[in-house]
Amino acid sequence: MSEVEVFGVKASGEVELLDDVNNSWAGAMHVWNTLSKKYDMEGSLFGGFTQLWKSQGKGILLPHEEHVLITTFDNIIIQRKDIEEFLVSFRRYAEENPVSNLVEQAEIIEKELESGYIGFCWNQTTVSDCLWYGTYDEETEEEIPFNIYTSQGKELARML
Questions:
Q1: Distance between CA atoms of residues 111 and 124, nearest Å
Q2: How many CB atoms lie within 10 A of CB 42?
């Protein structure tokens, strides 16, 4: 079964996996389906959720819905200074939509709030490519963590 992965960003810029939550369908796909239905926007697994995604930042969604939606986008990093507000939004959204796995995602981050991370980010499904995984150095046989300051592809990371 696919999972939602939650990552922390160290002050050095290195991104590391904190933990994962079972059933990625209860993450981004649940959010997209629920919000599309609530706001009468077309969307589907195969057709995409373009109308919903483009609604971000336009004042259509409630603030807590906006926060949750933002975290489903690829390559988004939520800064530590803002994460507690996002966690409140996760819990409120989960109360309104109890089939999601947002509470579990929030719990992973809450355990790490005092760990010195400068941001948090997600891979919404383990069946897709993920920017946050580093590379493997065949010569030294070591993993090289993704770094938001130095790694190839760093321009794709968006710190909010």
A1: 19
A2: 11
Domain span at residue 47? 3-159
CA angle (6, 26, 62) in 5-degree steps: 85
Hey, which residues does 77 pair with through a beta bridge? 121, 159
Residue 40: count other Cβ atoms within 10 Å of its Cβ.
7
- Which regions of the chain are under pLDDT 70? 154, 156
User: For the chain, how long is the longest CA-to-CA vector?
Assistant: 53
Please give the pLDDT value at position 159: 75
What would the two tokens of residue 8 be? Answer: 């922390």
Enter the pTM of the model. 0.89
Burial 114-143 (b: 16+ CB within 10 A, else e): eeebbbbbbbbbeeeebbbebeeeeeeeee
